Structures are given as structure tokens and as C-alpha cells.
């Protein structure tokens, strides 16, 4: 299973989201996730990548920067040392499309404008999208935005504040009770 994680690159992470990142990483490790992919940034994706790397989950960066020097020069990018594989692109749109083409599912947490854009792209590209609610930011408004858009995405998007249920849904298509 290849899961793309989209979220804010903000260095400010609430204590509850630090706990969610730990729970997500632990659960992904427990279920044997093949790899996680992110845009190579700090924030929740970066925290999850660091934790995943420590437990042996393959980590892949889809950097919107054309090369490693440009990636390293941006303040919101995580050091490439945390990634097993790095892919460089020219800009956010190319990066996002490339990442989503290989992802089996998209996991959304908190976020800002970039997360909103990526969420919309994922839905329009027909990807399975699981949103962990109560993580702050745009994630807590995405269900309302989908309703406002008046477009159905049956069986394609799932909202829940329990990260394990969201991950289970991404993998199996239905939420299961986690022990």
C-alpha cells in the first residue's frame, strides 16, 4: 500500500496532532504499509516521515523543487536525509499529479490552501481520499466544501476523526473497529 500524506508544511504542530502523527505512524507500521509519500515538507507530513523512517517504512519525497539544492534552500522543506527516495519536479502541480498517479490512497490532515488544492485534485483524479477530521485547518472544512460543491464522490472520500478508521477505509474501502 502506497499512501500519500497531504497536510500543512507549518512548523507549528499542536500537541494533539503530534499524538495523531505518532498513532498514524505506529498503525501504518503495524499493518505493513509499503511506503508513504509526501511533498517533502515539514509540518505533520514531515513529522510522520521522520517517525516512519525510524521504524523502517519506506519514505518517498515528491519535492516541488527542481533539485536538491533548491529543496534545501526552502525554509518549509524537510531534510532529504529522511527519505529513501526523492523525486524532483518543477512546481506543486507537477509534483502533486506525479505523486497521486502512484498513490493507492491519499491521507489528509489539517492543512491550508495547498492541501485544499491537492484534495480537489485527488477527488477529480478519482483517488480514494481519507480525511482525518479534528486536526485543524482546512481538513475540518472539507466535508462542508464537498457538500457546497454539489458534486458526489460516492465511495471515494471518507471523513472521520479516528485516524485508524480512515487508514482502514483507505485500504479496504470500509472502516473497521480497531483494537
For the structure shown, list the relevant keywords:
seven-stranded parallel beta sheet; 179 residues; alpha/beta; 7 helices
Describe the structure.
The protein is an alpha/beta fold. Helix 1 links the parallel strand 1 and strand 2.
Order of strands side by side in the largest beta sheet? 4-3-2-1-5-6-7
What coarse outline follows from CA principal-axis ratios? globular
Largest sheet: 7 strands, parallel
Continuous helix count: 7
* Intertermini distance: 21 Å
List the helices and strands and how they pair.
Layout (H helix, E strand, L loop, with lengths): L1 E5 L8 H17 L3 E4 L4 H13 L2 E6 L4 H6 L11 E4 L3 H11 L2 E4 L4 H12 L4 E4 L9 H8 L7 E4 L2 H10 L7
Parallel strand pairs: 1-2, 1-5, 2-3, 3-4, 5-6, 6-7
Write a compact overview of the structure shown.
43% of the residues lie in helices and 17% in strands. With 179 residues, the chain is of the alpha/beta class. The two termini are 21 Å apart.
Amino acid at each position: 500500500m502506497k499512501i500519500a500524506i497531504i497536510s500543512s508544511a507549518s512548523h507549528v504542530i499542536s500537541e494533539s496532532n503530534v499524538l495523531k502523527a505518532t498513532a498514524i505512524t505506529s498503525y501504518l507500521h503495524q499493518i505493513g504499509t509499503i511506503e508513504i509519500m509526501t511533498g517533502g515538507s515539514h509540518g505533520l507530513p514531515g513529522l510522520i516521515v521522520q517517525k516512519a523512517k525510524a521504524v523502517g517504512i519506506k519514505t518517498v519525497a515528491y519535492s516541488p523543487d527542481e533539485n536538491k539544492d533548491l529543496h534545501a534552500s526552502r525554509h518549509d522543506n524537510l531534510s532529504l536525509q529522511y527519505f529513501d527516495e526523492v523525486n524532483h519536479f518543477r512546481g506543486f502541480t507537477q509534483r502533486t499529479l506525479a505523486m497521486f498517479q502512484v498513490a493507492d490512497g491519499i491521507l489528509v490532515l489539517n492543512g491550508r490552501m495547498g492541501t485544499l488544492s491537492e484534495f480537489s485534485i485527488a477527488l477529480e483524479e478519482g483517488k480514494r481520499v481519507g480525511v482525518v477530521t479534528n486536526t485543524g485547518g482546512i481538513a475540518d472544512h472539507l466535508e462542508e466544501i464537498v457538500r457546497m460543491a454539489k458534486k458526489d464522490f460516492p465511495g471515494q472520500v471518507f471523513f472521520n476523526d479516528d485516524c485508524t478508521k480512515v487508514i482502514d477505509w483507505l485500504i479496504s474501502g470500509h472502516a473497521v473497529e480497531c483494537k
